[in-house]
């Protein structure tokens, strides 16, 4: 399933990117500076949006996604990008290395989100911006129930993606300082800016 998901990812995302996601990614990534860690970089959709950063270390567990992403590195803006095959729960980096961390559409899929957030805190510098664009469990009760019902089947089709993760509560549990939350599509998607308080 991971292989098929990797192959279909870019064609599925293209219309969504054109409608709105590209402007959200551009806005979010404009807050990244210095040495950036990108979590779950997939096919490298974010890579063209890194403009004023020193370098990007991207981690991604799916080998097929990495192969696609390596092709996309060619179309980026001279920012050095290195991709590591790794999971967010076990980051292959020393503590206090990164100036910023980026995660887009990843925390729905990570099997142990709290462990991943602890790792992000460990490897990022005190005060580092931690930037998220994620889909979440909606506030509206009927829609949230629909997300709960659809999640078991959806997980099988979309490589482990949960439609109903309450990601903001994980951020609180992990001790990240939430600076601002911008909802999109009636709160189905959130752009979240946090800092690592250390
Ligand atoms: C929906 S894709 C998002 C890709 C990209 N970030 C984007 O915005 O288009 C989710 C990605 O999370 C990755 N992923 C799954 N489990 C992960 C984990 N434990 N740690 C890091 N990334 C993971 C998947 O392989 C996939 O590339």
UniProtKB/TrEMBL annotation:
<protein>
    <submittedName>
        <fullName>Class I SAM-dependent methyltransferase</fullName>
    </submittedName>
</protein>
<feature type="domain" description="Methyltransferase type 11">
    <location>
        <begin position="37"/>
        <end position="131"/>
    </location>
</feature>
<dbReference type="InterPro" id="IPR013216">
    <property type="entry name" value="Methyltransf_11"/>
</dbReference>
<dbReference type="InterPro" id="IPR052356">
    <property type="entry name" value="Thiol_S-MT"/>
</dbReference>
<dbReference type="InterPro" id="IPR029063">
    <property type="entry name" value="SAM-dependent_MTases_sf"/>
</dbReference>
<dbReference type="GO" id="GO:0008168">
    <property type="term" value="F:methyltransferase activity"/>
</dbReference>
<dbReference type="GO" id="GO:0032259">
    <property type="term" value="P:methylation"/>
</dbReference>
<dbReference type="Pfam" id="PF08241">
    <property type="entry name" value="Methyltransf_11"/>
</dbReference>
<keyword id="KW-0489">Methyltransferase</keyword>
<keyword id="KW-0808">Transferase</keyword>
């Amino acid at each position: 399933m991971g292989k098929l998901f990797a192959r279909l990812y870019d064609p599925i995302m293209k219309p969504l990117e054109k409608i709105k996601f590209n402007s959200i990614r551009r806005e979010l990534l404009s807050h990244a500076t210095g040495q950036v860690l990108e979590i779950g970089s997939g096919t490298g959709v974010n890579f063209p949006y890194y403009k004023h950063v020193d370098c990007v270390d991207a981690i991604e567990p799916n080998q097929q996604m990495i192969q696609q992403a390596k092709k996309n590195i060619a179309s980026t803006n001279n920012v050095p990008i290195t991709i590591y095959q790794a999971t967010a729960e076990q980051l292959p980096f020393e503590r206090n290395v990164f100036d910023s961390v980026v995660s887009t559409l990843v925390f729905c899929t990570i099997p142990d989100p709290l462990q991943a957030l602890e790792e992000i805190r460990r490897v990022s510098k005190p005060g580092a911006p931690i930037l998220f664009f994620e889909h979440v469990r909606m506030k509206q009760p009927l829609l949230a129930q629909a997300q709960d019902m659809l999640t078991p089947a959806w997980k099988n089709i979309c490589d482990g993606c949960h439609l109903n993760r309450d990601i903001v509560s994980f951020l609180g549990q992990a001790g990240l300082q939430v600076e601002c939350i911008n909802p999109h599509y009636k709160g189905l998607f959130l752009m979240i800016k946090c800092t690592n308080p250390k």
